[in-house]
Amino acid sequence: MTAPKFPKMLNYTALKQQFSEEENLVLSPPSETHLNFSAEKQTKTQEGLTGTRLRSYAFATLTRKEYSKADLIEKLCLYAANRDEVIELVDELAQENYQSDQRVAEMTVRSQVRQGKGPNRIKMALRHKQLDKDLVTEDLTEIDWYEQAYQLKVKKYGTEVAQDAKIKAKQIRFLQYRGFEMDAIMKAIRRKVSED
To answer: Which family does it belong to (predicted)?
Structure first.
């Protein structure tokens, strides 16, 4: 047998002994000062934010994204010490127009319309954000839902009016899922190119 290509450079038995001694050192119980430090650290994290620190966090949160009043309260309560202080702070922010449910509702409507959603899906999104749909009733009435439904149908299925009942049913289900009313759906799937 020939000599190995790589000579044996490490003494494995010495390394095993060395590491087994280090493991025994690591497994020894921690000192009492270590335990006191971790207990002190835990109480500090449980205290939560108050006063100016809470206010600063609220402003930092609002600079990144618009929140509804209910969502902002829930987000701040995760880090605050007192829920009543959070509610008082959010009310103050709303009075000074740093937080506005109206703005959030309008942004939600615009975003949902861009995504091809109908009035029913928009109302669901507003309910999910705990916003009153009365904030944007005027905006919802200004939108031409027939045209929105037709444009969505054309984008997905083309301009041809389907004669097959299965294809019509598929188009109806698609537009219903997107949140359109039945009268807008029926006009959209029956509309011919000549009517444009």
So the answer is: Belongs to the RecX family.
pLDDT digits (tens, 9 = 90+) for 157-191: 888 888 888 988 998 999 999 999 999 888 888 88
In a domain, 52, yes or no: yes
CATH classification at residue 189: 1.10.10
pLDDT in tens, 49-96: 677 888 888 888 888 888 888 888 888 888 877 888 888 888 988 889
Domain that holds residue 183: 145-195
What count of other Cβ atoms lies within 10 Å of the Cβ of residue 101? 21
Give how many domains the chain has, as a whole number: 3
| DSSP, residue by residue, 25-89 | HHTSPPPHHHHHHHHHHHHHHHH-B-HHHHHHHHHHHHHH----HHHHHHHHHTTBS-HHHHHHH
| Residues 92, 72 contacting (CB under 8 angstroms) | no
